[in-house]
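Aim 2, interim progress: modelling of the iron/sulfur cluster-bound target.
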Amino acid sequence: MLSESSLKKIDREVAKYPAAQKQSAVMAALAIAQDEKGWLDKDTIACVADYLGMAPVAVYEVASFYNMYDLEPVGKYKLTVCTNLPCALSGGAHAAEYVKEKLGVDFNQTTADGRFTLKEGECLGACGDAPVMLVNNKRMCSFMTPMQIDKLIEECK
Amino acid sequence: MALLGAINPLMTSGWAGGDAGWRLKDYVARGGYEMLRKVLTEKVSPDDVIATLKASVLRGRGGAGFPTGLKWSFMPKNFPGDKYVVCNSDEGEPGTFKDRDLMRFDPHSVIEGMIIAGYAMGAARGYNYIHGEIFDVYQRFEEALDEARAAGFLGSNILGSSFSYELFAHHGYGAYICGEETGLLESLEGKKGQPRFKPPFPASYGLYGKPTTINNTETFAAVPFILRMGGEAYLNMGKPNNGGTKLFSVSGHVNKPGNYEIPLGTPFAKLLEMAGGMRGGRKLKMVIPGGSSAPVIPGEMMMDLTMDYDAIAKAGSMLGSGAVIVMDETVCAVKALERLSYFYFEESCGQCTPCREGTGWMYRIVHRIENGEGRPDDLELLTSITPNIMGRTICALGDAAAMPVSGFIKHYRSEFEYHIENKRCLVPRDVQWAGSTFYTGPSC
Amino acid sequence: MGRQYLLYGAVMLEIEIDGQAAQVAEGSTVIEAAHQLGIYIPHFCYHKKLSIAANCRMCLVQVEKAPKPMPACATPVSPGMKIFTHSDMAIKAQKGVMEFLLINHPLDCPICDQGGECQLQDLAVGYGSSASRYQEEKRVVSNKDLGPLVSTDMTRCINCTRCVRFTQEIAGVMELGQAFRGEFAEIMPFVEKTVDSELSGNIIDLCPVGALTSKPFRFGARTWELSRRKSVSPHDGLGSNLIVQVLHNKVLRVLPLENEEINECWLSDKDRFSYEGLNSEQRLTKPMVKQDGKWIEADWAAALDYVSHALRDIAAKDGAESIGALLSPHATLEELYLAQKLLRGIGSENVDFRLRHSDFSADGKRAGTPWLGMKVAEVDKLDRVLLVGSFVRKDQPLLAQRLRKAVKRGARVSVLHASDDDLLFKPFAKAIAAPSQLPRLLAEVVKAAAESKGVAADAALSAIVPGESARKIAESLLEARQGAILLGNYAQQHPQAATLQALGHQLAEIAGIRLGFLGEAANSVGGYVAEALPKGQGLNAAQMLAQPRKAYVLLGTEPEMDTADGRAALAALEQAKTVVALTAFKSAAMLDYADVLLPIAPFAETSGTFVSTEGRVQSFYAVTKPQGDTRPGWKVLRVLGNLLEVAGFDYESSEQIRDEVLAGQDGFVSGLDNAASGVSLTLDVAASTFERVADVPLYFADALVRRAPSLQAARDAVAPTARLNAASLSSLGIAAGSLVRVRQGDASVQLLAELDGAVADGCVRIAAAHVDTVSLGAMFGSLSVERA
Ligand SMILES: Cc1cc2nc3c(=O)[nH]c(=O)nc-3n(C[C@H](O)[C@H](O)[C@H](O)COP(=O)(O)O)c2cc1C
Ligand code: SF4
Ligand code: FES
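Predicted structure of the complex, ligand included:
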């Protein structure tokens, strides 16, 4: 189900924990699986469960608890804009409005061309750089003025 | 940017190189890993390390401000099985962004602090739990760990001593509650981050049920510096009962949001000045002095306070994680609270009744008030809900959700009443949120 | 104040609750201490058998010197502690929590299935306030399909997570979880999965609100309309205690009657839901007689007259030994006793209740009645166990649960079996091989134990060379402080059952551990007590089928399903001149082979006694009147005894019969002993390819459960397949999912091939006791598999 290279990455994570504690690698494994598949469908979750010797519902608990896992398909680029108070004070909320207008979608929606999904973020831990946006969970973009946003969206082909 | 300002910098003293100065060689050039070497080669006893920390009155930088030396001394000494050291880098408290920069610009100080912690508490393994949203920092930390391993600072018989220690990084994936130490442990065990009831405390029943000590990133980063200068000297940098310097993440309506390292006890006014003063020269309205869970303090009151645990507590709030959220007069107290209440509603782990049910209830009421649908008895209702949450939950998120509500209502009751009566905001519409425009970065 | 050290080592602390002084053991929680004093502290998430979650917060109480209220369920007592469960602080906290619990909970108790037995409803009366201050929209949670047994109304869920913890901690596999978080937290199985545990019904009892309810019972009645009567489960050997709830002479629900020594507070799904079979359309409610190939209803007098004449005729013409009786091990002690007394009274020794057994060579060599070898409650205290030939999870679900408990406490449980089924714990060591090889595997363990201990092994084992697993198992058993070797149903049904028993006995002696039999049926011990087995020249169950009789008396059994060789049973019954069936049910097959059907009461409709696998005598009363013209079996047998003029059949009550059988044995029967001497060991059976591995699926094991529709819809009741491991499949060139023809002797059936990695090499697992496989024949033996 998961590619060799993903499984290799998961093995590397498993090795961080004591032998009897494979389950500790579940968060990393789900992140790796999501990177490969785009989102976490039921089969992918079952596959991770099987690989780590966990009950599937225990993996589902984890996948549904943490915000950055997607249990539904998302666009090629998932943009998460932090609108929490410290960010909002420096334009975070405006940035979200700007992106919404520009892409023509609301939070939790995907553009018709399947390119972008917009998410409202809670604190990303980078409030000093507000407005901040996270691209596909991994790339933090700071000081996202309209010009920066335009540039980012242009880049995301 | 690396660092915008500091007074007597310790933990940020190595940040000058920014993204180019974090590597092992840079850290070593700054005198890094010398304390580890000293402890191991001179066979400084674990008790002496802990004594130094106790003397320094280093208080935990994660929020609660618990004395670190004391916490370390709780770890059982002759425990037959594994023991763990865990670093809490799940920085997710709105307004806090210091641990991110610590790991970006000086990850080895955290690593060295954690190794020394392992030595002092007899643990052979450590984990650093890093906020999932700062994945690039997690990756950098992993690289730093590889460097430390390659250099023999991690692994078996470190620097030829009998001390062996492994350290790994673990990332979160979007749950504020994993900042709570037992939620963190559950998450590290591969479960939902639902906090555990205490007692038992992690020192007796922690990761995988083994004795564990959890400290904040900044707490660990301070350790090598404290050992270098001595406990008392560190204490004297701050003020009694508030040892040393601390990082403050300043956000909101200042000209230069960012991290500042200042001695505890430094006046807030000084910190505000360092942060470039109020953006657009507008008037300071209110400050949340220690992260979003800390009760808000009106601006004029804040200007008289010093930045340390005791002074802020005396004023009815908390120094918390050192996240200073500065708000000017264009901010409506109701709207500010609405956003914070939404955060706690969204982040409640859902396990205990008062928090699961109460956070949503509070948010919905504040949301109604903000949207002109407030009812006359809403404030009374809100102030009777908060005490039913505080002190009744498994973890402090319940308190963290309730405190802003009672804090905002306490200081800005009239604004709430105005909203309820007039179905609109006391801050004139054209002014509202005016200070909160796109921020383009520090001018420097 | 302070600590007091008691003789037996537990430290007792002196504390005070609501002004009442108490001594409680150190390590207790406040809620336990309060319960000890009879003080009730409201709670939802706390359950004495589950881990502590402390999430509902309903149990908050005031503790002297504590600044905030403490959860009684999670707060350990400390010396001198003063607790106030009703102080202002405590009441305010409890009321606050109750308000939070109710804000999103529907307030429609009158239409809720839990109404009247809802802990939330009960407590809300005391702690809730009449008007809700919550004016926002209430949460709605979608329902989940948990399968045919448990119905959901998830909007009512208060997220106490008892059900989740039950599946994880007691049922042994986490089938439910709490997904999402905060206000959106939801209890659910994994996407589109059902809850398939054989213990699933317990989550209904555990749910303190109306979120999880019984699907078969749903809206059957309001609880206060139901009368509650005690009974005993007629299924496995455990004898779980039941509360049977009845309305208008109909059983509507079965709940556990808590008995810590037997079923604790649990029931298996079989015990809980089999009552549905009581109302099956196949219930026989009138005596019936076949005349000229046609069935006609008869009155009791005529039917019994017919029977007595028929038996008398055959005895006169062909000799009494041409009559045989096959008795169900699920029948009551009284029925079993009278049946054998009747047969013996008319001169036949051919009587047996061990219908699925195939080796009777221990007869006459047993030291006593085979039994569990210990109390049921001792099973979870075992520290070293060898489980031989047992599908324990399905055969005795609650004993499996106790074994899991033991494993959790650190016990090492090893397994010898023909199939490596998931027992929901990790066996310490295991040896999985074809059925024919089980005796040899056990002999290896015996030999290894003897060698390791330095004692002489039985001379018959001289050629045995212990393998690695055998040594590992033997070593672990030799370390036992509380050890046991347990022979499961499969071992008892095995063609070398006597060898297994003898070897088990030797091993027990060498290792200083106990030998136990896991009781197959409600009266597996009782059958011996009632002497419902042949003596001297009498034929045993297998012989009665192998050497067909002229007449058969069947008591509570459908031999084609209930015997070791259903095909042989059918053949024997079909050739017989007369088949008299005392039965609660009729079936197509029975209508074909029987000549008289006498409707006797199933367990709920008669008084009687089961002697459980631990030798415990449990008598029960009827909970309803018999349906139609049904009569209690003992009464029918009494009349037959009288009609056949057998002496000593003048019983007034079932108690009188019981007292005669037990002759003063009280509580537990005597004569329990698992030793056997003089059994000649059979160790050199050659393996054949392929060997049949036949389990008795739990919902086909007896006539009642076979007719419980909801259980028949459960996953454990799927139609049998031919299960082979990957190596076997590939050696045959057969793909999983394809149709195969299985031949056993001159019989054959077509089945779907299924991949099952648990099945031993060279074996095909094909369930017994199912209509689809009856025609295949014996549970043990060789067969061939080919593409169909
Ligand atoms: C809801 C909640 C969130 C928390 N978040 C963090 C966090 O992000 N980082 C942190 O270090 N401590 C956090 N804490 C505090 C930790 O529980 C713990 O006290 C701290 O990590 C201990 O480290 P210290 O003694 O070095 O401060 C949080 C606590 C609560 C109740
Ligand atoms: S207070 Fe909230 S976040 Fe903390 S354990 Fe309870 S429900 Fe979870
Ligand atoms: S019973 Fe104690 S918190 Fe639920």
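Chain B touches chain C at residues 175, 177, 192, 197, 199, 345-354, 356-361, 364-365, 375, 381, 387-388, 391-394 (CB under 8 Å). Chain B has a mean pLDDT of 95.
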